[in-house]
């Protein structure tokens, strides 16, 4: 184990009485040579202690989960009744952890909700609900372990590198990034124009779930390889 980088994996409460995350994050980090450290983000954890733990890591993963509280961004028009599993305490903890990681030059990978949180931290905004906007086909939980729609990336981007020969991804989200903010730029999209990846210096957010595809298709380990690249 000596010499292997420690990778923090932030996780929220799901269900409310448990901190949990998909095991694919752990297995993917292990597969690319890292040591996964699952870090709970919520009201039971002192944000200062969480930042101290993040300081010990080489990189950080912000995982999927419920919606980011619209209080954290300039919310565009939309029905607040469509929001799912908002956890303000998780937002506070994760925002502090991500800001700490970026301040210390650690790479951060955001997955689904995690990508959306990265955009919000940089001043971006989110679409409250894609179906409300007439955009369907992005919530396909029954097929979460298989690709369901096409994705295209900007040539030369980090998104293009981590996708490689992959041109189809899975999709389990009802929200999406509307504006990536000042710190990030959109670099991948689905065929209907929904942003599928955002990136900036040391930051990469992907809207799909590579941790649920990497067990059967090792090409989806590349986002985690990016995380540990120097």
Description:
This protein is an alpha/beta fold. Helices cover 24% and strands 22% of the residues. The protein has six helices and eleven strands. It has helices at residues 23-31, 47-55, 88-103, 113-121, 158-163, 222-228; strands spanning 6-11, 35-40, 59-62, 107-111, 125-127, 149-153, 168-169, 176-179, 185-190, 195-200, 203-206. The strands form two sheets. It has a nine-stranded mixed β-sheet, with helices on both faces. α2 (47-55) packs parallel to α3. The chain is globular and about 50 Å long. The two termini are 19 Å apart. The model has no long low-confidence stretch (mean pLDDT 95).
Number of helices: 6
Rg, nearest Å: 16 Å
Roughly what percent helix?
Answer: 10-25%
Structural class: alpha/beta
Helix-strand pattern: EHEHEHEHEEHEEEEEH
* Quaternary status: single chain
Main β-sheet description: 9 strands, mixed
Poorly predicted ranges: none
Rounded mean pLDDT score: 95
**Spatial separation of the terminal alpha carbons:** 19 Å
Q: What gross morphology would you assign?
A: globular
């Amino acid at each position: 184990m000596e010499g292997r980088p420690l990778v923090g994996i932030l996780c929220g409460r799901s269900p409310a009485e448990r901190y949990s995350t998909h095991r694919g994050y752990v297995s993917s980090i292990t597969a690319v040579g890292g040591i996964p450290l699952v870090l709970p983000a919520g009201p039971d954890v002192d944000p200062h202690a969480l930042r101290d733990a993040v300081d010990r890591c080489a990189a950080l993963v912000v995982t999927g989960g419920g919606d980011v509280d619209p209080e954290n961004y300039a919310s565009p028009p939309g029905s607040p009744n469509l929001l799912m599993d908002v956890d303000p305490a998780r937002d506070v903890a994760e925002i502090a952890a991500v800001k700490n990681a970026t301040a210390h030059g650690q790479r951060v990978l955001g997955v689904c909700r995690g990508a959306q949180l990265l955009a919000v931290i940089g001043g971006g905004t989110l679409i409250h609900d894609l179906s409300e906007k007439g955009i369907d086909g992005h919530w396909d939980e029954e097929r979460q372990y298989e690709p369901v729609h096409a994705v295209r990336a900007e040539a030369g981007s980090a998104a293009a590198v981590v996708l490689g020969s992959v041109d189809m991804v899975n999709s389990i989200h009802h929200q999406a990034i509307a504006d990536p903010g000042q710190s990030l730029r959109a670099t991948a999209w689905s065929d209907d124009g929904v942003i599928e990846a955002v990136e900036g210096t040391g930051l990469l957010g992907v809207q799909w779930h590579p941790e649920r595809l990497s067990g059967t298709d090792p090409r989806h380990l590349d986002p985690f390889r990016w995380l540990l690249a120097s």
